[in-house]
């Protein structure tokens, strides 16, 4: 068996999420279907760096799987891309040691959140950027992010549906910039809880609108209560950008 | 009656074209449906600068129509955008004289054609850029464009389905540049025949691949025969960018 590490991109618009479930198209389901064909009817199970929710996009998601085929990885990639639907693509495939695990070996991850901050909708970004036509103060938002940097218990910024016991995570970098009429939020951390980036963005927007003060973030973290934070920003603005090993 | 000039953008992916037809969603159909609601059941007919085909996008299409309503244009725009589907948006609306006509008064138009020139597909550009993973020589293409500039009979670059008698058009500007992994073709002219930009792009790609010489464009123009030119490039790479009056 050969263990393969594969970087994939997908447009999450028409998926019910990553993980196989009883109804709806899933990224995992479609990749495993393609691998099933590629392996002439043999079922291949894939393992992602982590799941993504319905509507969330990925530019550099990583998966691993074991294949009995011994063909060069570039031919493997070409064959796989021919079998994948047009909203999933394999960007790189490489051979790795059998002790590589796409989930357990993650060192850090990068997410980006896109906010369309202009008066009118943009029909070309409707599924990829959160249309937010309200005035926001970016300086206040950037000021607020400093309370999020470093290791914290992110219970307040985690969906109550999460089953993770330990909610301490470390955010190493937060960058925010304007790109044309979009505001890009970039987060790099050693791990992210369920809905964590979306709840952080939703809360930062309250700061940007003047409904919260930047230093309120510190208090919200200390409360360890999901209700203390802001709304969960919509899924379609979220992009899993990169995974480091 | 007030004549309104309206700049609109639409993502052509899920439309069967601009003009109302017996089956399939059309841009005109959806806009007229929204106006019908806005005018409480009164039918309003819109007039575009020109039609676009199924799959073709618009960033700055212009339409005009007459409205019995006398509300400020910014409120009109807001109401219309609330009623339009999420793949059409009104970018600007202004009052114009009743002698303004969106089609007859066009001075020039700009089209852009996007080509994704990289090894793998881009899931985020799949409906907006023509995926073309083959090696092309951009210098040869740019060399070829000089034969297209100016006034010519573009019969060879016009669909045989066209019913226009006079096929002389003037291309004022052609610019071609790389933007990330895309090649952008920009055409500005006083008018474009049916499929003209797509046939030009398809033919320029043959030059870029070495299957035609740049100076062959001159010969193709002189032949005045659609068969002399290259294939019609796919609709989804084409964007109506701007219309001048």
From TrEMBL, chains A, B:
<dbReference type="InterPro" id="IPR020094">
    <property type="entry name" value="TruA/RsuA/RluB/E/F_N"/>
</dbReference>
<dbReference type="GO" id="GO:0031119">
    <property type="term" value="P:tRNA pseudouridine synthesis"/>
</dbReference>
<dbReference type="InterPro" id="IPR020097">
    <property type="entry name" value="PsdUridine_synth_TruA_a/b_dom"/>
</dbReference>
<feature type="domain" description="Pseudouridine synthase I TruA alpha/beta">
    <location>
        <begin position="144"/>
        <end position="245"/>
    </location>
</feature>
<feature type="domain" description="Pseudouridine synthase I TruA alpha/beta">
    <location>
        <begin position="9"/>
        <end position="105"/>
    </location>
</feature>
<feature type="binding site">
    <location>
        <position position="111"/>
    </location>
    <ligand>
        <name>substrate</name>
    </ligand>
</feature>
<dbReference type="Pfam" id="PF01416">
    <property type="entry name" value="PseudoU_synth_1"/>
</dbReference>
<dbReference type="InterPro" id="IPR020103">
    <property type="entry name" value="PsdUridine_synth_cat_dom_sf"/>
</dbReference>
<protein>
    <recommendedName>
        <fullName>tRNA pseudouridine synthase A</fullName>
        <ecNumber>5.4.99.12</ecNumber>
    </recommendedName>
</protein>
<dbReference type="GO" id="GO:0160147">
    <property type="term" value="F:tRNA pseudouridine(38-40) synthase activity"/>
</dbReference>
<feature type="active site" description="Nucleophile">
    <location>
        <position position="53"/>
    </location>
</feature>
<dbReference type="GO" id="GO:0003723">
    <property type="term" value="F:RNA binding"/>
</dbReference>
<keyword id="KW-0819">tRNA processing</keyword>
<dbReference type="InterPro" id="IPR020095">
    <property type="entry name" value="PsdUridine_synth_TruA_C"/>
</dbReference>
<comment type="similarity">
    <text>Belongs to the tRNA pseudouridine synthase TruA family.</text>
</comment>
<dbReference type="InterPro" id="IPR001406">
    <property type="entry name" value="PsdUridine_synth_TruA"/>
</dbReference>
<comment type="function">
    <text>Formation of pseudouridine at positions 38, 39 and 40 in the anticodon stem and loop of transfer RNAs.</text>
</comment>
<comment type="subunit">
    <text>Homodimer.</text>
</comment>
<keyword id="KW-0413">Isomerase</keyword>
């Amino acid at each position: 068996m050969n263990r393969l590490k594969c970087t994939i991109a997908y447009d999450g618009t028409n998926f019910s999420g990553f993980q196989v479930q009883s109804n709806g198209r899933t990224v995992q389901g479609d990749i495993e279907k393609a691998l099933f064909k590629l392996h002439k009817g043999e079922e291949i199970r894939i393992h992602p760096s982590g799941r993504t929710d319905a509507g969330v996009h990925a530019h550099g998601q990583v998966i691993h799987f074991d294949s009995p085929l011994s063909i060069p990885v570039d031919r493997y990639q070409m064959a796989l891309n021919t079998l994948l639907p047009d909203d999933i693509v394999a960007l790189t495939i490489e051979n790795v040691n059998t002790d590589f695990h796409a989930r357990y070996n993650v060192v850090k991850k990068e997410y980006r959140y896109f906010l369309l901050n202009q008066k009118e909708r943009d029909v070309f970004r409707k599924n990829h950027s959160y249309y937010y036509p309200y005035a926001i103060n970016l300086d206040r938002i950037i000021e607020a992010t400093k309370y999020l940097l470093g290791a914290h218990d992110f219970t307040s910024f985690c969906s109550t549906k999460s089953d993770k016991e330990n909610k301490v995570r470390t955010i190493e970098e937060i960058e925010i910039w304007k790109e044309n009429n979009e505001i890009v939020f970039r987060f790099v951390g050693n791990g992210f809880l369920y809905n964590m980036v979306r709840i952080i963005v939703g809360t930062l927007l309250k700061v940007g609108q003047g409904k919260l003060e930047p230093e309120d973030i510190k208090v919200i973290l200390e409360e360890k209560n999901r209700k203390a934070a802001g709304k969960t920003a919509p899924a379609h603005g979220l992009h899993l950008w990169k995974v480091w090993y």
